[in-house]
Each structure stands twice: as C-alpha cells, then as structure tokens.
Amino acid sequence: MSTKPEDLSIPPVGRLPREASLGYQVNHLARLLERALRLRIEEYGVVPGQFAQLLALYEQEGLTQRELCERVQIEQPTMANTLQRMERDGLIHRVPDPHDRRQAKVLLSDRARELQEPLVAAARDVNGLATRGLDGSEAALLLSMIAHAIENLESAGRS
Fold first, then answer.
1. For the whole model, what pTM was predicted?
2. What was the pLDDT predicted at 7?
3. What Rg, from alpha-carbon coordinates, does the chain have?
C-alpha cells in the first residue's frame, strides 16, 4: 500500500495507524532488508547478524570487541556470541593486542577477505531494490533523513 505524505498527518489521540508510525515502518523495512540480504548471502555461509561486523572490519581491521560494539551499536554479550560464531565459521580470528594483552584485536580471515566483493555486491543489490524508483539524490536524501533520525534518538538517549 502506498502512503502519500499528506496521509501521514498526526492521528487522533489514542490511535496510531501503522502507516503513520515511523517506528513500525522502519522496523518493517529493516525486516525486509534483512530477509533480502539473507537470501543473497546465505550461499557464502554468512548471515545478516554477522554482516555489520564484517562491514566494520572491511572499513578498519584490527578493532577490539568493545570498538566493534561501538561501531555497530550492539551490546557486548551479543557481540561476544556473534564473534564466536564468526570465528567458528572461519570469518575472523583474534590476536592479543600488543599494547594491552587483556584485549584481542579482531582480524579478518582470508576467507572473509575473499568474500568481501560478493558480500558488498549483495548489499548493494538489496539497497538498489529498496530504492528502486528513486533517483540518486532522492536515495541520498533518504539516507540523510534516516541518519538524522538516528542522531536525534541517540542524542536523546544521552540526555
């Protein structure tokens, strides 16, 4: 169902249709993006729950678990479990931090490096599907608006 901007006026008190709920719409979009990504990356033995960590490590390898948590905004216990699975699946390995032996640096495996191109291509394909019908400036504006909403909520959480 297509919703026009004028249909998103503030509903009466006590009522919030799904179409007018930013949280509902973004959550629904996230589930659809996850499903589309899963279909494209499962053949590589990677699941969407590992994808943000891989992207962060493709950007900068050698992060600590804490640094990865900060980058991808997930809790330590979830990250610990995800990294264990990624290590088991041959995507990463950990080495002691030479400056602080209590911490470990997370490094990509050769396998993960080989998968970078097809995984990034899969993500670009999903992004393309999601933004089909938008021109480049509209897609950039959409990302900008989402980033703005994220910043609003993150800064409200720090208050």
1. 0.82
2. 56
3. 19
Are 69 and 79 in contact by the 8 Å Cβ rule? The answer is yes
Position 20 scores a pLDDT of: 83
DSSP 40-70: HHGGGT--HHHHHHHHHHHHSSSEEHHHHHH
Task: Show the tokens assigned to 99.
Answer: 């400056």
Contacts of 90 (CB under 8 A, 6+ apart): 109, 111, 112
Q: Which residues contact 51 (CB under 8 A, 6 or more apart)?
A: 37, 41, 119, 123
Dist. CA 27–CA 21, nearest whole Å: 10
pLDDT for residue 127 is more than 90: yes
**CA-to-CA distance for 142 and 12, rounded, in angstroms?**
27
pLDDT by residue (tens digit) across 33-92? 999 999 999 999 999 999 999 999 999 999 999 999 999 999 999 999 999 999 999 999
Q: Which long-range contacts (CB under 8 A, 24 or more apart) does 121-126 make?
A: 122/37, 122/40, 122/41, 123/37, 123/51, 123/55, 125/40, 126/33, 126/36, 126/37, 126/40
